Amino acid sequence: MSLKPGKKFKWSLDFTNNKISDIPSPPGYNPSVTPVQNEVVKDHHLLIKRSWDLALAPLKQIPMNLFIMYMSGNSISIFPIMMVGMMMFRPIKAMFSALPKLSEGAQGHGQKLLYFLGNLANVGLALYKFQSMGLLPTHASDWLAFVEPQTRLEHFGGGVSFI
Amino acid sequence: MSKSVVLCLASILFLNSTLGLYEDQIKKFDWKLTQIGKVNNAFLDLNPYQQNRLIVSTEENVIASLDPLSGNVQWRQILENQPRGQLKLIQMLVDDSAPKTAVRHQSSKSPYDILTVQGHSPAIVRGWNAFTGNLEFEWSLVPLQTETAEDSFWFHGNDMNLYHVIPNFGSHLEVTEYIANNGNSKGTTSKISASWIQKDKCLISGSYYICLEGSHLLALDLTATSPQILKKVVPSSPKTSLKAVRGVSGAVSLDGFIYSFDEKEKLCGDKVSGQSLLKAFQGDESLLVEADLKNNVLEISVKSVESCETWQNVKSTVQYPSHNGVPEVLAFSCRTNRQNTKVCSFVLTTEDEALLYVQGDKIRWAREEALANVVSGEFIDLPLSDSDGSIEDELKSKPGNENDSDLFGAFSRRVVSQIHLVRSIFLHVLGLGPAPTATQKAGLIRDAFGLHKMLVVLTQTGKVYGLDNINGKIHWSNYLRSVENFNNGEEMKLIVQRTSKHFPKQPICTIITKSAETKKGVLFSFNPITGAQIGETNNLNYEIQQIAFLPEDTTEFLKAIVLFDHNNQVHVIPENYKKQADGLYLFTANKKSAILNGFHLKFNEKSGQLQPQPIWTVNLSGHGSTQEITSIAAKNPIEHVHSQGRVLNDRSVLYKYINPNLVAVVTQGLDNIHKFVMNVHLVDVVSGSVVFSLTHRKVRGPIKIVHSENWLAYSYFNDKVRRSEITAIELYEGKVQANSSVWSSLDAPPMPLVERQSYILPFSVEFLKETITERGITNKHVLIATSAGNIMEMPWFYLDPRRPIIQPNQPREEGVLPYIPELPFIQENMINYNQTIARIQSIFTAPSGLESTCLVLATGLDLFVTRVSPSKTFDLLKEDFDYYLIAMVLVALTSASLFVKQLSARKILKQAWK
What we know:
heterodimer; A: mainly alpha; 3 helices; 2 strands; 52% helix; B: mainly beta; 6-stranded antiparallel beta sheet; 5-stranded antiparallel beta sheet; 8 helices; 60 strands
């Protein structure tokens, strides 16, 4: 351990220099023995598997959501609206929170894409439900309140003659 | 399907319960003035035995009894309208046995107190009880010849007999005598030959028939057995018309001279010194009352006929308001007070239709009867209070001044205004500040919701009043002498040239009328808050044919007036607005020929003159030119349309056809096959195109029409089935708008889709008017004045022409009722509940500061002011809103949450230490 004067970081300690010094290994330490690689490989597979599960979860939810949507009907009341609202916002939230947690690597991108698409499908379903409930402002009538009155170009006066 | 049915039912339930009044709200938002019209006959009865009363008959065919102490109406009988109800005679019965008072004593045996004769075909004779106003008897007389009966007149003999006189001008008079209370004729009709009688030159004075014939006055005593022609010489060209002297038989006044034909009647000389003369009995004495107006001082003197000396030193000198015009004494009565001197009361009617009650040297009370004939009414915003005014100033950033728009400028202005506020509070508390202005003293300050306004009312005599719309108090009045309504049934106009929103510039109202003498235009401008005249009365040197207004300009905030004279020349008042009038369109309609002419105004830069160019002519007189225009309805120029379309059940939009230049023209005429034919034309008066026409056959007037937004409603009498009906029309552009930003009638906008439907009304209509609000968000209701004196607030969804004929398997539109031809008479929608408005003529509406509320003025014989909220008061808290409870709950909850927060913090800390 030595201080390197003139280095940028005044308080940083460099341990690498000490590796060259011949301090003996602690007793019982065998540098030739390597750790068992098998376990790691198994764990890695498990991780990928878990990640796939996570990525597929939104897609698996779709049939369930369809069933709920069918059961709740198209009437406009507070509970169906709340349910559909949840259906709409949960996937969006999930996308932001869970996407970075998915594993890296070659499969990672596929998983992310799948997860993203699954959630998007859920959002789409919720939107469809909103649409069939008539809550989406997709008609001209929904924007009628914002239509400005026409400004008139001509002005007139007159009526029955006073003479 | 089920959804739409539920919605439909819910909307019906909801909408039906929107109106009505609670018992404690009676007279809270409304007030009524009970009027009787211009008084032309009065009988004052002050006697020690009974309740005092003043019995009057008026030009509006009303007889009434007033309380002489206050002028309040004790009872009022509204007789039939003209010509059937035209009052030809009112006679108070004097019983010889009782003290000589106007009204019969309770012990009197005479069969009636008041006798009236009305109309001519038939003539109706009625006897009334003076105490209760009840009808005691009635009989009628149908004349043999209706043409001559129109000029017939009646007089009352001394012996309780009624004389009916039919003059046949140029030949003779027919006199028949009747017993007043049962109509039995006494003897036969006597014919008195008099070839010299002429229409408009003769009158009846007592029992004498007096005519002006060249330089002679000729008279006949109609009660004499063999009438002799009496003659008197008068100056050949009299300046005034012949006038009978009140209370005297056989005396007329002409140019200030009195000519008496009855030798028994003494009149103390033959010259009148004052403007008005009256002869009456007081006890057993016969007295003459003379009223003379000089320099706003009215002198009333009483003379005894016997001695021609001033009677009992009775003389009144009254400070007389100049705006009342020339007075006329109608009645008087005296009583002896404790000091054994006479106290006399005089009843006067004035030129401006007021009724004055003079006692001693004071006007005890005055009734403004001009208000029985209102032609126009406007609600004017009151000025802001000082504190509100400074806030307004602070918020108003002046364009062009950059310092005002930045943050620092705004902040400094705020600080300055607050310092001013603090200072004014201090000064007011200490009583050092400037005295409040007259309007502030009178409490004429704008309230938070803009509900308190000045109601400016213009009446037919040319008198204009400033009324408080909250309590009906008359704040000021102005009288325009000798003006009259325009021809063709067009009334004089009251125009708001500048509203009171532009402080410190004063608001301006202008009356546009015509002179009764020269028939030329007259303009009178005044401040609607104080009533003070602005500038001189503008007597124009041309006749007004038509008027128009320029849109409000941005610097002076003034709406200039464009006048179109009888030579088709254009004048702009004030003059310097001529250039702005360039490009204005103008149209005039000839009622008789049913021709509409459109003009376009062009400003000539070189000559500085405005040139009207005729651009179109529309002839609506129809086949054979049988049709005449009966009414023209344009939209209210201050109207805002908030919703540009209507939502259909498939959630698409049907856009409204809102053409601001559209005018509805109604023509009526006779037809050989269908008897009465009525046409309704919708004319775009800028381009002259007829947008739509409708024809109703076997339909008669009177037609009442209301035109607003994209709809039109008119009521008429269906002659075929004999009932009142109303037709509603709505215009739609279709599912797309041709041009969503601007409207130009010259761009050939698409023809509208027209929806129409007719309904049967359970009453006959006197007037139709739509409600109006500030931004037009609130629903529009139609106010229907009925002939029974009610005002019905009819929601538009009842009149809606899109009400479908019910079909079971079709989805229904939201808020649309199925079609039922009969409109309901909804009692709770009567905005005047039990306060009947006599002879209702028109309704004026104005927006208030609250979007939900519309101010209403209904005029007729009576005046009624109220407010309506067509969509309920959605922008107001309920009156019984519990402010204290809400405040207490809020405070309690906030403090509780703060306390609990402390507790929980402490608990967390304790747990952390464990």
